[in-house]
Design brief:
The protein has helices at about 20-35, 65-80, 90-95, 115-125, 145-155, 160-169; strands spanning about 1-5, 40-45, 50-55, 85-90, 105, 130-135, 135-140. With about 170 residues, the chain is an alpha/beta fold. It has 2 domains: about 1-105, Rossmann fold (3-Layer(aba) Sandwich), CATH 3.40.50; about 115-169, no CATH class.
């Protein structure tokens, strides 16, 4: 299997001192190579890994130009290169262009996913109004037409609708 791994660009893999995520990436890359997989790693240029290293052009993950350069680098290094799956430990922005084109992506997210964070994503990315009830964010019924439109746009629930239609026929 041809596997691409992504890390953030600030620290090498493995890190000199600090960097628990980078240590995990090193162990994963080493284990995958030992098992015969073809691995490419997008990481800091000072990384020392037993696989193909694709060093980021920008050595930081903040700032518009740095993010754009690194995002382009990952896309160019994955699309059309026979990569079977991308396992990302880095910025979501770096893999975002891969999502609509069908490259399987696994995202390891090292931060707690809280109700507040999910509420923020629902409001800002999906543009749905939320209200907080009993400590959780909910989408009120008035937003149902927008929600159904999103379901249709992303193909969610299509199988259930098709099954109900077939059962009724």
């Amino acid at each position: 299997m041809h596997i691409a791994l992504t890390a953030d660009p600030e620290l090498p893999v493995p890190p000199g001192l600090y960097g628990g995520i980078e240590r995990m990436i090193f162990a994963l890359a080493t284990g995958l190579v030992e098992r015969g997989h073809q691995v490419r790693l997008f990481a800091n240029r000072d990384s020392k890994v037993p696989c193909a290293l694709h060093p980021y052009p920008a050595d930081r993950s903040r700032g518009g130009l740095a993010v754009l350069r690194n995002t382009w680098h990952v896309s160019a290094g994955v699309l059309g290169k026979g990569v079977d799956i991308v396992h990302s430990f880095g910025r979501l922005a770096y893999i975002a262009p891969l999502l609509p084109v069908g490259v399987p992506v696994l995202m390891s997210y090292q931060r707690p996913i809280t109700a507040r964070w999910i509420g923020s994503v629902v409001r800002t990315r999906l543009r749905l109004r939320t209200v907080r009830r009993h400590g959780v964010f909910i989408v009120p019924m008035e937003e149902l037409p927008k929600l159904l439109s999103l379901y249709e746009k992303y193909g969610l629930g299509r199988e259930e609708r098709e099954e109900r239609g077939a059962a009724a026929a």
